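Progress report, Aim 2. The chain analyzed during this reporting quarter is listed below.
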Amino acid sequence: MTTRRVFLGTLAGGLLAAVPVAEAQQSGKTPRIGFVKAGAPSANQHFLDAFKRGLRELGYVEGQNVAVEERWAEGQNDRFPALVAELIRLKIDLLLMASTSGALEAKAATTTIPIIFVGAADPVGNRLVASMGRPGGNITGFSQGDDVGFGGKRLALLKEAVPKLAQVAVLWNPTARGLENRLKELYLPAATLKVTLKAFEVREASQLDAVFAAIARARVDGLTVLTDPLTLRHRAAVVSLAAKHRLPAVYGFG
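Predicted structure tokens for the chain:
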């Protein structure tokens, strides 16, 4: 997924040209960017590296003419308010929020600091922006692959790979903002494909083994995973458990 990461960094870096970072440079102040990611650096450092690479391509070099304050929620959505508040106290010039929950917290916390979101689920439906074409306010960005319609397309791919597919387990985190809508939207394409969905909740990584055991007992024919900070951070475990239980699966993460 190297191309996607480079694209992420270049796009995010390009968006910086539209916010007052250049003005901060001209005033002699080193502009400060707050980068907040839902996961942990051990599994998501490549996103930050891609972002910094995009900055360098536009002439912004960390330690020379820009500072990046990185914060990590470690898969815990309840950490976002404190992380955002801390960055606001540091008087940063720009917030980059790499999750739906984080972006919503940032939007609620400030109407003056420019906010860029990346990987947000259904920005319009979650009221992050008025529309993707005209976001309005102090916030802009782009959505993730689990946006409207993508879940159904992955379900269709699973049906194509497993023609006798009749029952599909949906692994999802009910505490992640936006995922309930993604789950509801799956039922229409599932009906079209003549597939029955069975939803299985996971709220903590410690529950994964038990949840997959329950999925195995349900004797489903396949699995689809709705991406959120938890499943993204522990994607290796999710993929491994699906393989262990011989479950054909499709995922929203790379």
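Residues 1-6 have pLDDT under 50 and may be disordered. The domain at 150-251 is CATH 3.40.50.2300 (Rossmann fold). These observations will guide the mutagenesis work planned for the next reporting period.
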